[in-house]
Amino acid sequence: MSEQKNYVVKSIFKMVSKATDKAVIKLFKVSMLSILPVALCLITNTNGALAQPQTSPTPVPTPTLPPNPIPVTKVQGATAYGNQISLNGRVVSGIWFTRAASKSQFTTHIADGTLRTLIGLDLLDTNNPTKQPVGWFSSYAKPQVLNAKLIGNYRYLDVTRLAQTSGWQMTSQGNILTIITPNAKITDIRESELLLPKPPINPQTNSQPNNNSGKFITINLDRPTPWVVRQEPPAKRVVDPDAVNPQPTAPPGREWTIILDGIATSALVQRYTPVPAPVPVPVPNSPIQLLKQLQLPLPLPAPVPPTPQPAPEPTIKQVEVVNNQTLIRINVPFGFAPRIQPNAANSLTVEIRPDALVPRNITWAPSLVWRQRWVNLGQESFPIISLEINPRNAEIRPIVSNPNTVIGTAPLMQTAQSYLAVAGINGGYFNRNNRYPLGAIRDRGQWLSSPILNRGAIAWNNSGQFYVGRLTLQETLITSNNQRLPVLFLNSGYAQAGIARYTPAWGTTYTPITDNEIIIVVQKNQIANQYLAPKAGQTPVLIPSDGYLLTLRGNASSNLSFLPVGATLNISSETLPREFNRFPNIIGAGPLLVQNRQVVLDAKAEKFSDAFIAEKAVRSGICTTATGNVMITSTSNRAFGAGPTLAEHAQLMQLLGCVNALNLDGGSSTTIYLGGQIIDRAPNTAARVHNGIGIFIK
Questions:
Q1: CB 608: neighbour CB atoms within 10 A?
Q2: Least CB-packed of 54, 473, 513, 658 within 10 Å?
Q3: 590's torsion region: left (phi>0), alpha (psi -120 to 50) or beta?
């Protein structure tokens, strides 16, 4: 039994022992013994939260509060505002405000990111940031146009008329806006084949994959209703080493769930309820079992015809009704994704295709344009989502997951919202295990973490000037007797033999990263103390607020004689190239992709591994354009395949018109945030990141 359990047990029976009535004591003990196992199970929940029992569907939804309401600033002139919305009984995070149109009438305004993720509202092309055409069970040829206004870090749409025509009931109390939509029914679900363009020829096999068939699903309703789509995490594949026909090594498909506020008919639920697979009955003393038990050689069996391939998984895996919502689970092959559109005929059309991204060009704010497009590179086609920002009308800053320390990770959405940023993208590399930074971060002139390995970085100021190149920071300790000692790293998780420095930007304390570190405490430029830290991960040392720590690793311990207690130290610091010295803000990642419109990719020179160089993955990037704008980009999986290699990423950035371009951390870290929403991927698939680049509209 753990110490925590022991403490609970002792505390309970200690209270019992103070009772005077024996009958009460007996009843209390019996009751506690019956509930104690449950209490202890709740204590051992690994997330530190009480486990919630599952509830069966109920005809009346019970409101539940979201775990972390997002921050929202006061809206001037609003009669009410808040950061939570109760939609048909479910309380979720959402940004809104109401305003008096007259003495008896009010207008309701909801952030466009909330509307996209809450009811499935589709934002259409616009070159006017104050007018937003939308698609929601209406004509895309003549869409409804909502008034839009950027207030603080959110862009609000006036949904008053949309709510009236859709029959919504809306009230507000405190910071919660309550929306009740009319009851809806799902009347039919139909599936058919979707003929697609032929996939490109594979240059390695000189053959064309035979998978140009997609799926078309139509979901009919009796009226418009809120809907959302969720991408599920990938299923873990288990390969049986004893299987005669091992499972293929091709990437598995992904499951997506379409969730509608409506009830599917019982016939639909029954039609798409999976039939349980029969449990195989083992044959006693079969050759395979004897082989496993006795480990004796057996004669080879006679050749048998090849086992027929199993039938492909059905596209619609299951339809179920839970808490007045219908969940439609669909199987999506690797390289494909669902393209979903609500139509005027009270239906949702779902196209499962390799080119699911819908091109868009939305002037989201006067100095910010959101684009979605396909870019062709040879025979391949890549979906790219980008934000182009005029830096003369915006402030750009490095953002970190924890403002009090450079240790930590968090979802980019959480970090961007905590900074009240309008937009942002993930930044440089970090160690996922200990959450330490692995690259340059400089915020308004202060180094939070130094560059490593002469890797690519981007620097900028608040005048709209940028510099992109490979960056090294040279710091030198100068002792009172003019001894000069190089400092290799500053506030970095990249631990190598040599001298490293840790300032209060690292946090209040420093815990040794490697064994046998010598830690020197410097206060007001004078050595105050020395420690030997024999074990990594033990014995945190306080970082003085008026100084820093030096750590001597490996053969750097030979410099200890130059650093006695009481000695005075000075530090000289400069960047290479020196152009970086002029810029207060820097984010490092790499490799460098484009410089002066030319591809300059040299990942080997920046010490990236061969596996990383050859990998095909989702990529993040940042670049400057010929107009002086800055563009942040997310490049996803190509049609019928995986994401770009680094070489392909460099060429794609060049095709986008980048003058100078840098590769940022990619893969599951790749995330673009805009006004309360993640626009380049399903939010639940985005990994926690250490740092990013925040956009603040002036």
A1: 18
A2: 54
A3: left
